[in-house]
Every structure is written in C-alpha cells, then in structure tokens.
Write a structure and sequence with these properties.
It is built from no helices and 11 strands. By secondary structure, the chain is mainly beta. The strands form 2 sheets. Strands 2, 4, 5, 6, 9, 10 and 11 form a 7-stranded mixed sheet that branches. It has a 4-stranded antiparallel sheet with strand order 1-3-8-7, with no helix packed on it. The termini are far apart. About 35% of the residues are buried.
C-alpha cells in the first residue's frame, strides 16, 4: 500500500511560481500530477518514470512546469512557473506502474492541494 501526501499549494498572482511536493510512503514506480478544476474532469499535468529520466507533459503546461523526483527522499516535485489563472485547480499526486497521461493507469492518489492563481 502506498500513501501520498501533497503540499505546497496556495494563492499566487499570475506570472508567479509555486513548487508542489508529494511525499510517498512505500515503494513507488511511475508517478504523476493531475489537476481538477470545479466542474471539469481530472486532467493530466505531468508524469515521470522511476529513474526520473523520462517525463511527459501536455502542451498546456510544457515549458512552464517541471516534474522531478528524489528517490532517496521518496518525494516527487512539480515546479510551476509563469502561472496563469487557468492553472487554478486542485492538484493531485498519483503513483502507478507506468508513466502515462491516463487517470486509470495510476493506482494510488493523494488527497489533493489547492492552487489558486489570481489575475
């Protein structure tokens, strides 16, 4: 069983930065970040494989967000720069066997952390 705890969310002005962290208990393989805005489906933000060498992003965040992990600390990060109001959502950390963009491929989820970007 894997438990995931996110931290680092908050309120930031447009153009600002935030760094999210996801602390894991138990062995993790691929990990990812997803987000969900009110009234919308959960959407893919970033994913990374166990080694940290391979990572993927959708076009909406590519060049602004960076996913990374420190396996010694069993922690994953999401550095978010140049934030936009449309990035406002609850951000979820997830763990699974393979790093994909699909919600259904991740077996474990954190409780979520709110990110609000004001214009």
């Amino acid at each position: 069983q894997v438990q995931l705890i996110e931290s680092g969310g908050g309120l930031v002005q447009a153009g600002g930065s935030l760094r999210l962290s996801c602390a894991a208990s138990g062995r993790t393989y691929a990990m990812g970040w997803f987000r969900q805005a009110p009234g919308k489906e959960r959407e893919f933000v970033a994913a990374i494989n166990w080694s940290g060498i391979n990572a993927g992003y959708p076009d909406s965040v590519k060049g602004r967000f960076t996913i990374s992990r420190d396996n010694a600390k069993n922690t994953m990060y999401l550095q978010m720069n140049s934030l936009k109001p449309e990035d406002t959502a609850v951000y979820y950390c997830a763990a699974g066997l393979t790093a994909t963009a699909r919600v259904q491929d991740f077996d474990y989820w954190g409780q979520g952390t709110q990110v609000t970007v004001s214009s």
